[in-house]
């Protein structure tokens, strides 16, 4: 848990380059849940980088149709947890006028997935909640460095919709031998992962410990969560992971790889699955 509003955090990685593998210090962008409450009642949890939380809550409520203009807002203020007075991960919003009158309807209709597993106080609570649904994954196989390094290019070569639109993310599932068994494109990275996992679920092929999930963007908490629940042992991303993604990967027993390129990559957790 972070007691500050710093948007970044020091992490320890294994950097793999043409000259070999080396332990190094690095920096990760902080990702933590922000709980948005309406009149002291939970409404939504947003995974975000700390900072400008009041503005984020206001913009989110506008986008969700909860408010229409500034006059609908009575107050937007941070809450403090008695055990963690420095944590700024809960924002309480009080509505006015017609927006306040619709409060019971808003709360009743709200589908809030993350808030069922997190109080919004800190990333640690979010991770501990997941442990009630899944146990850490065991290492049952390893992947050669050369195979792992080429997977992002294998993913890119299987993105026909991106070639035509330039606007879609992709996720693919490979075996540790490098065989592609599923791929999906979507405007949302999380949706693409859900499509791939859903296909494996429908084919009754879960869990997926001896597989690699390759994603076209960064690795967020949600992507590691989805991989853990599907039993995926390795995540490989072309961009960086967030701090909470790294924490969750450590807890889940998942090998988390970022900045994957033909020339090398960074390993943020459980390097034992990699033949370096």
Features:
276 residues; Ubiquitin-like (UB roll); 2 domains; eight-stranded mixed beta sheet; four-stranded mixed beta sheet
Structural topology:
Layout: E1 8-17, E2 20-29, E3 32-38, E4 41-48, H1 53-63, E5 73-78, E6 90-95, H2 97-101, H3 103-109, H4 123-130, E7 143-144, H5 145-156, H6 160-165, E8 169-175, E9 180-186, H7 189-202, E10 211-215, H8 221-230, E11 234-237, H9 243-252, E12 255-261, E13 264-269, E14 274-275
Parallel strand pairs: 3-6, 7-14, 10-11, 11-12
Antiparallel strand pairs: 1-2, 1-13, 3-4, 5-6, 8-9, 8-10, 12-13
Helix pairs in contact: 7-8, 8-9
Offer a quick outline of the entry:
It is built from nine helices and 14 strands. The chain is α/β, with parallel strands linked by helices and 276 residues long.
Describe the protein's architecture and organization:
With 276 residues, the protein is of the alpha/beta class. The protein folds into 2 domains: 8-28 and 135-275, Cytidine Deaminase, domain 2 (3-Layer(aba) Sandwich), CATH 3.40.140; 32-130, Ubiquitin-like (UB roll) (Roll), CATH 3.10.20. It has 9 helices and 14 strands. It has helices spanning 53-63, 97-101, 103-109, 123-130, 145-156, 160-165, 189-202, 221-230, 243-252, and strands at 8-17, 20-29, 32-38, 41-48, 73-78, 90-95, 143-144, 169-175, 180-186, 211-215, 234-237, 255-261, 264-269, 274-275. It has an 8-stranded mixed beta sheet with strand order 2-1-13-12-11-10-8-9, sandwiched between helices. A 4-stranded mixed beta sheet has the order 4-3-6-5. Strands 7-14 form a two-stranded parallel ribbon. A hairpin with a 2-residue loop joins strand 1 and strand 2 (20-29). Helix 7 runs parallel beside helix 8 (221-230) and helix 8 (221-230) runs parallel beside helix 9. The radius of gyration is 20 Å and the shape is globular. The two termini are 32 Å apart.
